[in-house]
From TrEMBL:
<keyword id="KW-0813">Transport</keyword>
<dbReference type="InterPro" id="IPR013525">
    <property type="entry name" value="ABC2_TM"/>
</dbReference>
<feature type="domain" description="ABC transmembrane type-2">
    <location>
        <begin position="27"/>
        <end position="261"/>
    </location>
</feature>
<keyword id="KW-0472">Membrane</keyword>
<comment type="similarity">
    <text>Belongs to the ABC-2 integral membrane protein family.</text>
</comment>
<protein>
    <recommendedName>
        <fullName>Transport permease protein</fullName>
    </recommendedName>
</protein>
<feature type="transmembrane region" description="Helical">
    <location>
        <begin position="25"/>
        <end position="48"/>
    </location>
</feature>
<keyword id="KW-1003">Cell membrane</keyword>
<feature type="transmembrane region" description="Helical">
    <location>
        <begin position="236"/>
        <end position="254"/>
    </location>
</feature>
<dbReference type="InterPro" id="IPR051784">
    <property type="entry name" value="Nod_factor_ABC_transporter"/>
</dbReference>
<dbReference type="InterPro" id="IPR000412">
    <property type="entry name" value="ABC_2_transport"/>
</dbReference>
<keyword id="KW-1133">Transmembrane helix</keyword>
<keyword id="KW-0812">Transmembrane</keyword>
<dbReference type="Pfam" id="PF01061">
    <property type="entry name" value="ABC2_membrane"/>
</dbReference>
<feature type="transmembrane region" description="Helical">
    <location>
        <begin position="112"/>
        <end position="137"/>
    </location>
</feature>
<feature type="transmembrane region" description="Helical">
    <location>
        <begin position="68"/>
        <end position="91"/>
    </location>
</feature>
<feature type="transmembrane region" description="Helical">
    <location>
        <begin position="149"/>
        <end position="173"/>
    </location>
</feature>
């Protein structure tokens, strides 16, 4: 069997293992899904009119703010779901299963690839579930074409891939599952500090650079433009650059940690 065939076979096996693990222990995924759903409902029904009036210059329209809110919530969902990847990797490292895998005649990188592919699938599925909740409470896109929907799904997948590789590195460097969850918490906090809830221009001047110069804001603005027809501008290529850069950085970091000889 060629090395490529071996890698594909073993990676698919590890992917199946991680999906079965997620199905048998759904509480972690459900807990991570609860936060974006609660934020969506809170801001839509409690703060919706007030936030819409502030952004729209006096016109209180909850549906307009809901449309503004949903792209940011979807990115928050992806950030939160990848925390589960960090926890899962840390659990594997500390429970000894990785040490057993090292003794088997399997492709070395298939273990991490299985974690990454499984996490990306969970991220996209979580975003679909949260999007379904948004549609149920009144979210509607604005004349988004089939091509724009495909690009939107592609963007969500690319963000999931980039953040998952970073989360895998955080899981590998953490001494236990609790530390992995804490180390990966910035993946959920950064969307809260972006343009997810209010435009960057509406933020205090000292805070605007924090919201603007981070990966989530261009990704959110790009997704918002694809779904709602707003101006994307330079945010499109910025989002791609951020995602590719983080994916490469996370891959190099994770693989170097994983291939390091155990102490």
């Amino acid at each position: 069997m060629s090395s490529l065939s071996l890698a594909l076979r073993d990676s698919s096996t590890m992917l199946r293992r991680n999906l079965l693990h997620a199905r048998r222990y759904p509480s972690l995924t459900l807990n991570l899904l609860l936060t974006p759903v609660m934020l969506l409902l809170l801001f839509a029904y409690i703060f919706g009119d007030t936030m819409s009036a502030g952004i729209g210059g006096g016109d209180a329209d909850r549906s307009e703010y809901l449309a503004y809110l949903v792209p940011g919530i979807l990115m928050l969902t992806i950030g939160g779901t990848t925390i589960g990847s960090a926890v899962s990797v840390a659990m594997d490292m500390n429970e000894g299963i990785i040490a057993r895998f090292r003794t088997l005649a399997i492709h070395r990188g298939s273990v991490l690839i299985g974690h990454v592919l499984g996490s990306v699938l969970q991220c996209v599925a979580s975003a679909v579930l949260v999007g379904a909740v948004a549609v149920a409470i009144g979210f509607r896109t604005t004349d988004a074409s089939v091509q724009e929907w495909i690009l939107a799904v592609g963007l969500l997948t690319l963000v999931s891939l980039a953040l998952t590789w970073i989360a895998v590195g955080m899981g590998l460097v953490s001494p236990n599952a609790e530390a992995a969850g804490n180390n990966a918490m910035p993946l959920m906090i950064l969307p809260l500090l972006s343009s997810a809830f209010v435009p960057v221009d509406a933020m205090p001047g000292w805070f605007q650079p924090i919201a603007e110069y981070q990966p989530f804001t261009p990704a959110i603005e790009t997704l918002r433009g694809l779904l709602l027809g707003t101006e994307i501008g330079h945010n499109g290529w910025l989002a791609v650059v951020w995602c590719v850069g983080l994916a490469v950085l996370g891959y190099l970091w994770s693989t170097s940690l994983f291939h390091r000889d155990p102490k």
